[in-house]
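Limitations
The structure tokens in this dataset are predictions for the assembled complex, not deposited experimental models. Users should treat interface geometry with appropriate caution, especially where small molecules or nucleic acid strands are included. An illustrative entry is reproduced here so readers can see what is and is not provided.
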Amino acid sequence: MSLGRTAPRLDLLRLPGLGRFARWRYARLTLQLPLLALALLAVFDGLIGRQVAPQNLATVSVWLHYRGLLVLALLVLGNLFCAACPLMLTRGPSRLLGRFLPRLSWPRALRNKFLVLGLTVAFLFAYELFDLWASPWLTAWLIVGYFGAALAVDSLFPAGTFCKYVCPLGNFNFALSHVSPAQITARDPDVCRSCAGQYCVNGRVEGAGGRGTLGGPSAPLLQLEPLPGAQTFPGCETTLFVPQMRSNQDCTLCLNCVRACPHDNVALAVRAPTRSWARWRPRADLALLGTVLLLGGVANAWAMVPGFRRAAQAVAALVHTRSEALVLLILLGGLLLGGTALTLAVFRLSSRLAGHPEGTRRAARRWGVVVFPLAFAIWAGHTSFHFLTGWASIVPVTQQALGRLGLFAGSPDWTLAALVPENLLFPLQVALLYAGYGASSYLAVRVARDGGAWWAAGPLLAWLTVLAVLTVLILGQPMELRGTLLDGGR
Ligand code: SF4
Ligand code: SF4
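Predicted assembly:
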């Protein structure tokens, strides 16, 4: 068993108040309840309220605030939105339901990111086809569907299955949390070496007959019902073993490990992301997911600008169709499939130049880390644009939704919706993009240099430059108010 060698220099859980809060049994619940209330209100407003996207809590909270704040949180600390995810409150009902259903184990063939990858592509396609950002009603049903899926999966399979193998949003967070400056790690690896119970992953039962574990990684990890006379501390819901963690991959920041470790040996360490990246070699499925997120980010931004409509109309004329679904399939499918194939070919070419004539899987492992910073930057640039153009509008739309419930008596303050820092938007997007491009380029050179051939980074640097320039050109264009893809727009 290989364990980490160095203790963290700065541990956020040592800060006054924070460590105590993290160890508090109800810490996560305290974060989840406000988001649950917001989700319920958004569903109510999405289904019952006015179907005008900028004036409805469902669309404003999901497509402006949730996405924008999520990337901001990843950048300044970590995966806070998984930590506060209200979907996890379905664990109580799913445990109840589980009593009447067979308990299954997640198929071995799906213990990777390929299902998530397929769901992510399906989401990107549906987002464009059904104009999800413009429909409060569909957005409300998306939220309901998400809760239903979490409930169904976690009722049939061990807790944590949904987060690790199914949830596209959680896996988006996992993949992009490699940019985050904090990571769970062991304070003292020597303590872990002599720790018999490995409680951080297995969970712990304390009291009534001494100390024991809640079960191995294949057993239900979240013991929600306290055993009589004992205190229970669930282990890691995504089966991470703290002393072996080398990245934020699959960490929901639930802090179960902090509470389960009886030796107070878990840290939330501040780290330099670039140093961690340089050591991280993602599995091939993760590298592929990172690549699809990178290209999906470009596609999602491209779909906002007039060039996308012109391309769609050209494709429609070429294949003689009026079917938007077909045109989107060709455009998005072409970009994602073609771009992924090209990226993998570039990985192989770089490997060959480095003197490693290896297959696609091994090349993806070697170079895959390179795509993550640029993927983050493209999504951050895009979602921060939407967030900043409507950051204060959350106030009037919430007032309006509460008013419908009789919980707010005044008139919504729509003047707040006009507070847009327009001059800042494009420079901020470009700054984020250059930072991501710089970090990805650094990693390409670093991986190549570690292999003894810095010039092997050449093809990757060229490909990253093409993607970064394309994205700047896209972000620099005015955003369209879109009608249907194949008509003249609005
Ligand atoms: S329970 Fe604590 S001491 Fe034991 S392996 Fe996990 S982090 Fe280390
Ligand atoms: S228990 Fe697992 S998922 Fe939760 S914070 Fe610890 S390592 Fe991350």
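Some entries come with short summary sentences. For this one: Strands lie at 182-186, 204-207, 212-213, 230-233, 266-270.
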